[in-house]
Specification:
heterodimer, A: mainly alpha, 3-stranded mixed β-sheet, two-stranded antiparallel ribbon, 5 strands, globular, B: alpha/beta, 4-stranded antiparallel β-sheet
Amino acid sequence: MSRDHYTDESRRPARLKVGSAPHLAPAISYTDSVWTYIAVACLPMGAGLIVYGLAAARVVGLSMVAAVLTQRLIGIAKRQPGRIEITHSAMMGLLLGLTLPAATPWYIPVAAGAIGVGVGKAAFGGIGHYFWHPAALGRIAVQVLFPEKLSPGLWAHGVNWPFLGRGHLLTGDLTRTCAAEHYIGWRETLLPSGCEAWLAPRPEQILRWLADGRAELTGGGDRPLLAAIRDALPPWRDTVLGLTGGGIGEGCAVALLVAAIYLIYRHHLRWQIVVGVLAAAAATAAILPIRVAPTGSGDGSWLWLPVLAWPEGLPAGPIYVLYHLTCGDLMLVACLLAGETVTNPITPRGQIIFALALGALTVFLRMYALPVCAGYWALLAMNTIVPLIDRRTQPRALGT
Amino acid sequence: MSLFRRRPSFRGGYWFARLRDAGAEPIGDISPTAPLAVPLADRSGPAASPVVEAGQPVAPGQLIAAAQDERALPAHAPVAGTVVEIGRVDTADACDSPAIVIAPDPVRHAEPQSVGPPLSNQSDLDELVERLSAAGVINTVDNQPLGRQLARARRQPIQHVIVNSIESQPPLAAQQRQLAEQPTDVLDAAEMIRHATGARRLWLTVPDTGRRLIRTLQQLCRRHPARPVALTPKYPQESPVVLVHTLLGVALSPGRNTLEAGVLVVDVATVLAAGRAVRYGQAQTHRVLTVGGDAAERPGCYLVAVGTSLADVCEHVGLRGPLGRVVVGGLMTGLAVPDLSVVITRTTSAVLFLSESWHGRPIACVRCGACVEHCPVGLMPASLLSAFELDQADVSELYPEACIECGVCSLVCPSHLPLLLAAQRLKARAGVPRPAEATSS
């Protein structure tokens, strides 16, 4: 009687669905995370579009199309349709585009996108399985394959990078360039007629001259720092706003920081990673020595702790450290690339160690080893030792 | 009272937005109209054997099934009525378990029966153990008979008794509600247990969000040995392992229970049941449930007779719309049931009527570390999952037996991976008994 009573169909509203606990939708989803990354990456993308013109859109578009097509082809070959894989590849294509300079031939973003997604991601098995950041891997691959296109004359100290001048933002032509002879700042200097873009050394390059001991920057005591800040480097404001030569998304520190803050607010990025990378980079730049005498001039040619330099009442040391933070690829790596979860350590403690080492390594490579792509090389190097960090930072279970 | 200013907490866990509505109203009453199917077995032990026959009238509190084994608990009739049959019924955690079906008879007057004469609050341990076993009092913190747990105190002394009223998983509120309605009864019964076990300390943990409740308890405890402690209701604060660690700083080694460390953790409902059993000889035949979920029209705390089916509870509280999923227990650790013929047992904590049934589509682990960061006992759930998937033989370094099955890892996973299930399977493979919350149906 009882079972009839309870199993009577009229008393049972509908067949209920069952499932395992917890019975709540998760607070966060990876699809959301990928879309948020795409949305916020549009900020530095927009800044790049303004400073480098429509050529920037072409480069980013090509790298995204190459990344998505590669993913689609591999998906068809593996008979594994996956919308999230496609979205994720589009995100990687976008991030990859941000790392490339705008003035490049069409095949460079295409090759970078195809290698980044094909070799860097899909060959390992897609989301969750790759070791190296696909965007950084694609960038480094084209840097190695086409060095003359991405940094011509680099080792001869002659490399200059184009960016649009006053009155030509967004619509200017990056190929109509003028070399800057008396360049004192983007807003303060007038372009010669017939030119639409400046051709100037990247500020990161000038910072490296300090470590190289370039002739015009050397002298006794604090002199090189002063010379670099007064004569060689663009105003700090220009490096913060991204009005310098470089990768499309690398320049504008403001846009990158806003993007990172939004990601942190939405819980798609840990603040410890951004702060860790930047803090370690600042500390490293503050400590590591610069050359104050020409190469080979013997003892006393290195100035350690350049942060303490304070010549002629000008806080040159602290300014030098700030330049390190806002120049080059460091900010892009800290805000958008280092937080990539798959290539990060899994333990929160490990992620902090990862971020600190990444920031320090970036500045070290930039000063003494690799004049371009130091941040991406550092990221790949740190990705490589992630299993090691994971093993060393396993949390202690309660009561063990 | 300075203890109120200390807010000890623990690492990891999860903050739920406050869901206060379930505990705001006084406890309601669901008087049975349809036949009750009183289950004869609880999860922890074998079934009791019936001592009544079909057609026999029973009085409220009358013994209907006696425990043959010391691990079993007797069953009592919740209401006056007639035994219809000795059949079988489904509970949330056991299918087809033996039950006695009683048709309630509200017209017939029957004197309530007690399991024994009233005892004093100063009873000794033997009296208390005997009475609690006879009244079928079960400790819903870990679903063990309370009498047996106290009997252990003869071999291994109990140092601390913790009475917990914190329920941090949504939308549970019954414990706090019962404490708010009967604070003196809770304190007296708790002191009775402390006295019998000879424990040094009696703690009363309350969520630090209930300011009025805290003030009331502060006043009541001026002349009482109980020490109230306000703790942050971060989930899973109420898990015995976490509670003992937060409150006493005792880190239990993986797989050990609190009694082995000399700590008895009970909740408010258990203490009240023990108090009634001693003072009035009342058997445990009812349970205060949190009834909630977005499909329930009148959510709240209700006093429900053991053996009431979910269909009757549903009829009483009403529905707002179609049902998607029905959960017995909290949202984090409850069990979804396939239909409404399931009955309430002595260990049921809540019934939730949900309009939607959520199913995640898992993708590969993206190694974000959210599970590691939120795990309250310091495990690496993602590694447990991969160990389970790869059928790894040696998982001792991952300590699956330390898992308290709170489910926070599954909740925070952006890849929607069944991390909790993997940990449960690994534990089962290692032969570790499951903790109460995951089974407190």
